[in-house]
Amino acid sequence: MGKKLVVTALVILMAVSLTGCFDAREIGDYAYISMVGIDEGVTDELRLTFHIPEFQVSGSGSDSGGGGNSNEKEKAEKEVITLDAPSLLSGVSILNNSVPKILNFMHMKAIIISEKMAKSGKAGKVVTGLMKYRQVRGTTNIIVCRGTAEEFIKAFHPYQGGLITDSIEELVTRAEYTGFITNSTFMDMYDRIKSATSQFLAIYGSVNDGKNLKESRSGEESDPESRESGEPEEEKPVSQNEGYGSGDKGRFRIPGDYLAGETPVKGGPDIELFGSAVFDGDKMVGTLTGFETQMVRIAIGRLNRAAFTIQDPLSPDLYIPIEVKEFGTPKVSIDLSGQRPMINMELKLEGDITSIPSRIEYEDEEKNRILEQAFEEFIKTGLERTFKKGQELKTDVFDLGQVAIKQFLTIPEWEKYKWKEKVLDAELNVKVDFIVRRTGKTTSNKPAK
Amino acid sequence: MLKEGRFGYKEAISLIVISITSKVFFTSASLVSRLVGTAGWYMTLVSAAVAALFFAFLYLLLKRFPGKNIMEINDIVLGKFAGSLLSLVLCAFLMIIASIDMREFTEVLKVFVLPESPPSFIMVIFIISVISLAFAGLETLVRYSKFLVYLLGAGCIFVILLSIPDFRVYRLFPLLGNGLGKTIINSALRCSFYGEAALVGIMAASLQGTNEIKRIGFYSIFISGLMTSLCLLSFGMVFPYSTAQELVSPMFAMAANVHLGGFLQHMEPIFVFLWNFGSFIEVSALFYSAIMIYCHVFRISDKRPVILPMGTLLFCLNLFPKGIQDVFSAYVQTMRTWGWVIYFLPPVIVLIIAVIRKKKGAQRNG
Asked: B2 CB contacts (<8 Å, ≥6 apart)?
């Protein structure tokens, strides 16, 4: 009888004391932060911007976490909170005095760092410091933005009224099919800025106000004001692409050879992700355009599928769009025996022609080979250009250290070799093997009569 | 009165394997990375081989005294006083190990899962569970281990499989890590990681003869070695050596990084499950072994009155480390490096003395 009593008492005690614990919280107790922006502070070390989407009960008439309702602007203002604080944790503490919920980073999708902060090296220190913060997940995306992170977050709205967390995730995932941005996560950043093997490339983002979409070509009269003043229209500086097109330099630009904020786009979402921010250690040292980022992805074997447009080799005024994907991983070998590392890279690509505006019959075997060679040369030039740019930025953008490290037996030997310095003098030899697999819905392309 | 009962080799292997491998889920993995860099995954196999060599001595000793456990053998070979003293040292050591492992579990749980719960709250709940299992006896403990070993194994493999997209083979290079010399020295010292194999000696009387003991010991070390190596290999391919040595629990971080589309994310709860049950079995095994030794030395036939005081002692020992840094860099590091001195060395010495003094147990028929 006594034993039964003790057991019953124990069961009741355990039922009361163990059904919850000090950390037990209901989902409604939290405010989930979807993005954090880090800028240089004015009244304190950091200016932090938190995006805390308002989640509503589904079926309440508006989409949760998104816009779509009449007071969207007011709601967006409420969702974005900016403050100055010495650290993220202090910022959270300050914010917890006005937000009556526990701020939670478990579902944070992106950390936005302003370019200024990234270049100063402070961002690297702040962001890697977050590694100790248990709620921040390694899979959180890292975006370096032009201008301020605050502006970027304010301009970031869910597309077509969906969830903002979905919008961020999908925007990054879609890049798998364009190659214009890299996969850059918080864990990547942490790993790479401390690594003697690889350097970090972050997603580069910006607010695009649509002003890059010109109404007329450079040199042509565009707007009444410039006509009246008689002054030539100032060419807006764009990324360092040369463009191509016979006798008309820059007529066709290499697709994607832009940085975020430079693309000639008007309308749609206010922000865009395009290109990469290149880091040396914890400091941003430059940028790669979307096209150069595609080259990086090709070189490291992470280009799922991407559209390229090349100059028509037999009709240089025209272009040919080709959808390309890699087959087989790139073969990279590095000879470290000499003074300079000699890098040999062999790539295998395949593609489908999606259009031939010149109507030249590239389906023909001989002409097909001409097109393949033109594309091989295009990629080779792109890779060499990107590699050289990486060297100018004093970085190994192609992650070649990951190949070189295999030739060393011990970590001290590898670190003593100082790959990051050696790669700056390295010579790259690229061999591209491209095969046209399919030519779209037609098998021949007769000229117009 | 509690009886140890008899159980088969599968149950015993389950207990030993869980007790050994659950340590890899905590700070040990990053400690290994700090010591030998990228060589951790094969260093542990060498450690397992060294542990197996030491176990061979324990087996020879147990074979020399069939049907006796290590405490009885100590008494026979060294005399009651010296034998009891040696057994008490082992008892104290097991209690310390149990308390460190438990504190490590508490600290890591607090870092990742229960940041607001006071450590004592976590410890009390944990100790209540350990004490309850101790009251149920050794047979229940090993049978429970056998039930759990499949779940824990499947959970561990599942986490590793989900992490495959994050694997980068280059992260295993340079293959020799911080140097072959360091790897060999550390692999020899860290045979202590497999020290729980020595528990076979304590529970020898409950096992089915010396052939079973041999099978249990070597299989346990072999399976634990493979599992530990697999875990270290996996996290070695997920994190570069520079990061791996900084993480509190690389295996947890690996599970937290799983991101397979929109559906398979946030997989770390699986890992928390592995943690909880693995640590629970490990601490219970060590705790119960300590009770067995204590009761043998002081000739206490009923273990039940000892369980609660020993549980209280375990709780108190838990409070010694100041914090996770203390646990990680002082206690765990010391025990994993020098634990073999208590786990494996005494049986070797006792065997030598037994041979010299020509002490031998009665041979059983059949």
From this structure: B135, B137, B302, B303, B304
pLDDT, position A235: 42
| Residue A308 DSSP code | E
Element (H, E) at A309: strand A306-311
Confidence of residue A391 (pLDDT cuts 50, 70, 90): very high
Q: What is the pLDDT of residues B16-42, one digit of tens each?
A: 999 999 998 888 888 899 999 999 999
Q: How far apart are the C-alpha atoms of A43 and A21, rounded to whole Å?
A: 39
Of A187, A402, A413, the CB nearest to B170: A402
The contacts of residue A116 (CB under 8 Å, 6+ apart) are A39, A40, A148
CB contact under 8 A, A137 and B125: no
- List B residues 175-204 in contact with A (Cβ-Cβ < 8 A): 175-180
- The reply to whether residue A187 touches residue B257, judged by beta carbons under 8 angstroms, is yes
> Distance between CA atoms of B272 and B292, rounded to whole angstroms?
30
Antiparallel, parallel or unpaired: β A331-335 and A283-288? unpaired
pLDDT of residue B67: 86
How close A345 gets to chain B, by Cα (Å)? 17
Is the CB of residue A15 less than 8 Å away from at least one CB of chain B? Answer: no
How many angstroms separate the CA atoms of B204 and B71, rounded? 10
Average pLDDT, chain B: 90
According to the model, what pLDDT value does residue A257 have? 83
Higher pLDDT, A136 or B219: B219
The CA–CA distances, whole Å, from A369 to A176, B85, B168 equal 28, 86, 36
Q: Please state, as a whole number, how many other Cβ atoms lie within 10 Å of the Cβ of residue B180.
A: 14
**A345: three-class secondary structure by DSSP:** strand
- pTM value? 0.86
pLDDT digits (tens, 9 = 90+) for B185-208: 999 999 999 999 999 999 988 888
ipTM of the complex: 0.87
pLDDT score for A65:
47
Query: What band does A202 get if pLDDT is binned at 50, 70 and 90?
Result: very high
B80 touches chain A (CB under 8 A): no
Q: Are A132 and A301 in contact (CB under 8 A)?
A: no
pLDDT at A20: 61
pLDDT computed for residue A304 by the predictor: 81
Counted across chains A and B, CB pairs separated by less than 8 A come out at 76
Instruction: Give the one of B114, B257, B262 whose C-beta lies nearest to A22's C-beta.
Output: B114
- The two structure tokens encoding residue A80: 């974005």
Place of tokens 């890279």: A345
Say whether B113 and A411 touch across the interface (CB within 8 A).
no
Q: What is the pLDDT of residue A21?
A: 67
Q: What is the length of chain B?
A: 366
Q: Which residue of B has its CA nearest to A138?
A: B257
Model pLDDT, residue B56: 95
Whole-angstrom CA distances from B43 to B157, B184, B221, B228, B336 are 21, 7, 14, 10, 14
User: Is there a contact between B163 and B254 (Cβ–Cβ < 8 Å)?
Assistant: yes
Residue A186 near residue A111, CB atoms below 8 Å: yes
Q: How far is A409 from A389, CA to CA, in rounded Å?
A: 30
User: Is A13 at the interface with chain B, CB within 8 A?
Assistant: no
Contact map slice: B 264-293 vs A, CB within 8 A: 265-266
Contact by Cβ (8 Å): A400, A423 = yes
Taking Cα atoms as reference points, which of A193, A106, A189, A178 lies closest to residue A141?
A: A189
* Average pLDDT for chain A: 81
- Which amino acid is located at B218 in the chain? F
Q: Hey, is A271 helix, strand or coil?
A: strand
Q: Which residue in B202, B11, B223, B184 sits closest to B97, CA to CA?
A: B202
